[in-house]
Amino acid sequence: MALRVYNTLTQQKEPFQTMQPGKVGIYVCGPTVYKPSHVGHMVGPVIFDTVKRYLQYQGYQVTWVVNITDVDDKLIVRARELNTTVKDLAEKMTADYVDCLKKLNVTGIDLMPRATEHIAGMIEMMQGLIDKGYAYPAGGDVYFDVTKDPDYGKLCNRDPEQLEAGARIEVSDRKRNPGDFALWKGAKPGEPKWDSPWGPGRPGWHIECSAMSMKLLGKTLDIHGGGLDLQFPHHENELAQSESYTDQPFATYWMHNGLMRIRKQAGKVGGRPAAGAEGETEKMGGSLNNAINVAEVLAQHEAETVRFLLLATHYRSPIEWGDERLQEVRRSLDGFYRFFERYQRITGQNFYDLAAPTKHAAFKEDGNNKEFLAQVSKHRGAFLELMEDDFNTGGATGTLYELLTTLNRFADTQQLEGGKTNEQAVCDLRRGAEVLRELSQILGLFHQPLAARTGGNDQLVSGLMQLLIDLRAEARKTKNFALGDQIRKRLGELNVTLEDRPGGTGWRIG
């Protein structure tokens, strides 16, 4: 099955073809860095990091750009509130954003340009639009004239009047038309400013992305991505000014990810959003005062849990956020972590050390346990087919669970923990585990062991736990089942789980 991608511009899935054979240029709109990153800021990066991983797995050479908007009205207002400079605030919040990406294993961003580094290119583009009659200066500002672009509104599939009626548009008596948007804003006292042919000022939001993306990736991008909330006005305006300037298509594929949804607030509890009515959700965002900072989330949940939650639905679907959902995901992930421990007991090898393929190649089903390997191959094929169908990570994560069940069932039926030596079966289990590693790498999951979860590095804790396990074993041997059950129950209350295995009893936290 050949890769097909849903294109917002055409509202259908299309075969994936790039401007240059074997190469892909991706541009994703990054944040305006005026507040610490909230979990909604992580949706796009995690999704497109996975998109890049899959494209690389299929042999493409990918360049992925995410911009930083480090000059904007929100930054100016927030800097004044904090009695700091726009530059210092932007640097601090950019560092926070980069740190959050690192924690969520978003490793694929190649370039992260700042808007303030590309002012000259923006001014050049504005002058070109003025020269071609698409833009006009007005009292120190510069505006794009939407009436000069005959297909303005094509990304949203709506005419300009509908777009004006359905969105907040800056009001100015300097505009020729209500829907015209600012390319350059004349400086007000105390604001950051740069010199230009129209007087000191700063760029508008939309021109920033057009100038940076084309400078770094060329006049036509293979993929332009971002949240669904950016479709209008930001992406519509980017498209209009870029194509008017170059007379070429701006992007071959427009990919819009669904937004983070959070229960509507019925008030505030401890400074955090309180649950609203059952089923009522709203977009998460700083401007809505319902955002939850990434740092706050990661203080309570592992980063891998958050990443898995973001990938567990199709990228075009909304993602419902909540502690219950995170707990549910974590419980599901525990099945994988238990298998990794089991794999090490059987093979003596750490799952995380497996050298799984990073490029797509045929899976050979040759081995002693052909039926098992055929099942592994089937799960692998299903995973890849789902990814070929518009990067369906939601379906792909479900396939990982099916593969996990197959691996555990094989270990059970072959009694690989029963003390018997079956080197061929162990070899085939290793090949199945390599497939799990191969596929999870595409999703950016299970890249490193979690922080110590069993306490095994603490000699005292390990010794005490072994003492309790021995006492329980002795109680069961003497048919004192009440004591044995009491030990298990009390440990469970401490979030410690005992696991009775063929080779003995083990324990784990969680």
List the helices and strands and how they pair.
Layout: E1 4-7, E2 12-15, E3 23-28, H1 40-57, E4 61-66, H2 73-82, H3 86-103, H4 119-131, E5 135-138, E6 141-144, H5 160-165, E7 181-186, E8 201-203, H6 205-217, E9 221-227, H7 231-246, E10 251-257, E11 260-263, E12 268-269, E13 272-273, E14 281-283, H8 294-298, H9 303-311, E15 319-321, H10 323-347, H11 370-388, H12 393-413, H13 423-442, H14 459-477, H15 481-493, E16 496-501, E17 504-509
Parallel strand pairs: 3-4, 3-9, 9-10, 11-15
Antiparallel strand pairs: 1-2, 5-6, 6-7, 7-8, 11-14, 12-13, 16-17
Helix pairs in contact: 4-6, 6-7, 9-10, 11-12, 11-13, 12-13, 14-15
Could you give the distance between the termini?
A: 40 Å
Give the fraction of residues assigned to helices.
40-55%
Q: What is the tally of helical segments?
A: 15
What is the beta-strand fraction?
Answer: 15-25%
CATH class group of the domain at 326-449: Mainly Alpha
What general outline do the C-alpha atoms trace?
elongated
Round the mean pLDDT to the nearest integer and report it.
90
Largest sheet report: 4 strands, parallel
Quick one: CATH superfamily of the domain at 326-449? Answer: Anticodon-binding domain of a subclass of class I aminoacyl-tRNA synthetases
As residue ranges, the low-confidence spans are 265-278, 452-457
DSSP E strands, number = 17
Task: Could you tell me the CATH topology label of the domain at 326-449.
Answer: Four Helix Bundle (Hemerythrin (Met), subunit A)
Radius of gyration: 27 Å
The CATH architecture category of the domain at 326-449 equals Up-down Bundle
Structural class: alpha/beta
> Order of strands across the widest beta sheet?
4-3-9-10
